[in-house]
Amino acid sequence: MKMVKVLAIANQKGGVGKTTTTVNLAASLAIAKQRVLLVDLDPQGNATMGSGIDKRDLPATVYHMLLGSKTLHEVRLHSTTGKYDVLPANRELAGAEIEMVDLKDRENRLKDALQAVGAEYDYILIDCPPALNLLTLNGLCAAKSVMIPMQCEYYALEGLSDLVNTIRKVRGQLNPDLEIEGLLRTMFDPRNTLAQQVSEQLQQHFGDKVYRTVIPRNVRLAEAPSYGVPVLYHDKLSKGTQAYLALAGELLNNAKQPAQA
Ligand code: ATP
Ligand code: MG
Question: Is residue 249 part of a domain?
């Protein structure tokens, strides 16, 4: 039987392309006939909006699900523009951080909620907020692996070590199965020498954990959210579309390989 693959898309650094990656990977996997659930774990609600769902008038969100006042089924919506399901979020979710503190097993609230629908999906993609907080911790505990989008900038590697340490801690204490699925180079400009150097360092340090697919800087990717559609349905021939389709292909191919010893 095929197992659902739960991926957290995380990096505590802001604006590195987490949400862009979550939305466009979800749409690219969906068009490859995968059943996908996108979980918006960020109070900014950008993945929700980018999926064509208005975050401002939602009766039930991930916030209610994490606190136990609504079930996953009551919260779940379908993105007609992206052809995948969504657990939406908005600014209310910011309160969950504090309100969950007294709850039992507070790091595992998302994992427990997702248990009910694991069999319905091939991929569950979790868009994490730009912080190593309790929400991100819920993402990392629910996930089997972490995808780390990053820009190839001077300080990128430094920020990466904090994230890698957090992943190690989570693996040691809360989620022994957690792996780094891969590092994704985003907003890449091949003409930028520094970006090339950082990219090389990344490959030296992380080897084949670095995806072969590189996401270029592409204005279509930045425009698509304002129409509430993944880039695939905004400009299907754009470089951004091609890159995220290639990333989905890489993921699907890796999934077919037998596990490495
Ligand atoms: P946050 O940490 O705030 O959640 P994020 O890591 O989710 O941010 P995004 O929101 O995906 O990052 O991207 C930040 C900004 O950069 C957005 O305006 C987005 O449209 C733009 N962007 C992302 N990827 C690309 C790209 N490859 N080319 C051009 N613009 C991009
Ligand atoms: Mg984001």
Answer: yes
Q: Which residue's CA is the closest to the ligand 1 atom numbered 17?
A: 222
Atom of ligand 1 nearest to the CA of 46: 10
Based on the structure, what is the number of domains in the chain?
Answer: 1
Residues 18 and 135 sit within 8 Å (Cβ to Cβ)? no
Q: How far is CA 228 from CA 22, 24, 32, 93, 206, in A?
A: 14, 12, 20, 21, 34
Residue carrying structure tokens 């190593």: 132
Q: Which tokens is 131 given?
A: 């912080």
User: Is residue 261 in some structural domain?
Assistant: no
Assign residue 137 the CATH number of its domain: 3.40.50.300
pLDDT of 72-116, one tens digit each? 999 999 999 999 999 999 999 999 989 998 998 999 999 999 999
Q: Whole domain around residue 242: which residue ranges? A: 5-256
Ligand 1 center from residue 171 Cα (angstroms):
28
